[in-house]
Amino acid sequence: KIDGQWWKEGVVYQIYPRSFKDSDGDGIGDLGGIIEKLDYLQSLGIDIVWLNPIYSSPNDDNGYDISDYRAIMDEFGTMEEFDTLLKGMHERGIKLVMDLVVNHSSDEHTWFQESKSSRDNPYRDYYHWWEAEKGKPTPRYSFFDVNNDAWKYDSTTNAYYLHYFSRKQPDLNWENPKVRQEVYDIMKYWLDKGIDGFRMDAFQYVSKDTTFPAFPEGYEKNIIEYYGMGPHLHDYLREMNREVISKYDIMTVAEGAGSTFEDAISLVAPERKELDMVYHFEGMDIGNDLDGYDLLDFKDVYTRWDSAMEDKGWVSIFLANHDVPRMVSKFGNDSPEFRAASSKMLTTFILSMRGTPYYYYGDELGMTNIDFDQISDYKDIAALNGYQNALKEGKDLSRYMKKLNFLSRDNARTPMQWNASKNAGFSNGEPWIAVNPNYKSINVENQENDPQSCLNYFRKMVQLRKDHPVLVYGDYQLLWPKNKKVYAYTRTLDQEKLLVLLNFSTTPSQLQLPKSIVLKKELINNLENKNLHQSKLTLAPYQALIFSIQ
Ligand code: TEU
After folding, report:
1. Of 153, 346, 401, 423, which one's alpha carbon is 20 to 30 angstroms from that of 34?
2. Among 428, 461, 494, which residue terminates a domain?
């Protein structure tokens, strides 16, 4: 089972460059800032950095609207700095994975400028156009548009263009072979620089039925079913694999995984030669209600995915990214009493499951959601347009604001908390988004000096995964499936067997171990001085333990 693939064994650390470290005082994180923190990255023990988009962009969606795929965003720095960064990472044994955002470009990309200029422009078919004389286009849902209308009328040529995301993110027409060649060239450009892979943004949506058939009423509630896994997706992936991916030693991650296990497997089954691993959203669909979530649902998702993928494909394991709330606020408990313990408990989970762990910047400190209450506090287009929409439709605004407070993507985009000085040591200027006021106590500097900190626990847990290949490759077996407070499982590889115990609750939980489990050694414990007894164990609130067992 051990196949030595680096992208299975590595720990991924995700950096949202806008918010990591500002080196030039303009309030926006940049490449120079990441370069300053290279030694910090190395000190974490992580193996791979996934960097959100750094390409030229008018920033309608913070870099997910790209106007030049071969240039660096002005605010982020220069290509020379990029080269320095990549070299600095490689020197420290860290690989770099970049975002590939090619379901859409920016409307400010020259391709689109050309495309919209006339109906017979050579770039016309780089995008999806619907000529107005055919009447209104078949409805399509936009994730970000104020009206959720994915067709935007453009008078220049009396036609509508398609945009699944914002109107400044027109969808590229993958059915056009020229578009695909452009993408392959872009990929080669970065791979030849030496980067180590791509996270393929919204990739499941690229192939479209260009007859644009009508979808049934309410289809947008199951959007992935209708938008995902389009008619030629696999053809394009195989072509891409043949022309680009197979020529490099890289990792490729599909963001989104269709709507069934069969879809997911079809994207990453090794013999199909398409992509390496899926990044499915099912874990993120839990806990979006304001009144918490049921641990049984949580266990169920991860257990079903593990058994579905078992020998057939590889998954990403994560509890946060730049599109969702902070993990400790959503899945743990961010009250002062339990924040650190629950954050370490979740860290234990991410790093002890089968699949490649993706860890989001700041989570190593137990950074929390920020408590925004005014719509003017928000920066994210999804929040701002959603608010306009709620206003227009006469929705309950106070409920909308509550949901935003909890779920907004901006929660996870606040500046990294480096120290207790002004702006958390993120920037000398005015940060582009508010710093979480809790930075005075929650920051890297404080935690460096505390052996019990979340930060040092993360390092320990990363090391534990390195020392025990069973945590990467071992079989996963759920224990006590009906226990509503404790998530427990074993990992087994040949002779080595580990037991993972995670108390997801605010109260102590007693466990009666079956006779077949004999504890050998405690490998990690997120709380100090808790007495443990063989066979009858009491887990303290949010306690996490890993034992080697017989
Ligand atoms: O997000 C894509 C994404 O989240 C959708 O594919 C998802 O299916 C949809 O929102 C339903 O939940 C990526 C980036 O992560 C995000 O930051 C960008 O805004 C987006 O693509 C557009 O590029």
Report:
1. 346
2. 461
Check if 258 has its Cβ closer than 6 Å to any atom of ligand 1. Answer: no
**Torsion sign over Cα 230, 232, 237, 238:** positive
Q: Which of these three, 461, 495, 527, is where a domain ends?
A: 461
Structure tokens that stand for 21 in this block: 């470290």
Q: Is the CB of 202 under 6 A from ligand 1?
A: yes
Cα torsion angle, 135, 138, 139, 140, sign: negative
Give percent of the chain with pLDDT exceeding 70: 99
- Give the range among 20-24, 159-163, 526-530 with minimum mean pLDDT: 526-530
Per-residue pLDDT tens over the stretch 367-384: 999 999 999 999 999 999
- Whether 382 and 321 map to the same domain: the answer is no
How many separate domains does the chain show?
Answer: 4
Pocket test for ligand 1, best of 109, 143, 166 (most atoms within 8 A of CB): 143
* 22 within domain boundaries: yes
Is the pLDDT at 229 greater than 70? The verdict is yes
State the catalytic residues: 201, 255
Rounded to two decimals, the pTM is: 0.98
165 lines ligand 1 (CB under 6 A): yes
Ligand 1 mean position, distance from CA 492 (Å): 35
Whether residue 225 is contained in a domain is answered as no
> Residue 1 has what pLDDT?
82
Ligand 1 binding pocket includes 64 (Cβ within 6 Å)? yes
The tokens of 335 are what? Answer: 């009250």
254 lies in the same domain as 319: yes
- Domain extent for 384: 373-407
Residue 47 near ligand 1, beta carbon < 6 Å: no
CB 142 within 8 A of CB 170: no
User: For a substitution probing ligand 1, which of 59, 64, 69, 172 has the most ligand atoms within 8 Å of its CB?
Assistant: 64
- Within 120-251, residue ranges assigned H as helices are 177-193, 223-227, 233-243
Minimum CA distance residue for ligand 1 atom 23: 64
Residues 190 and 132 in one domain: no
For position 136, which CATH number holds? 3.90.400.10
Chain-centre distance of CA 110, in angstroms?
Answer: 29
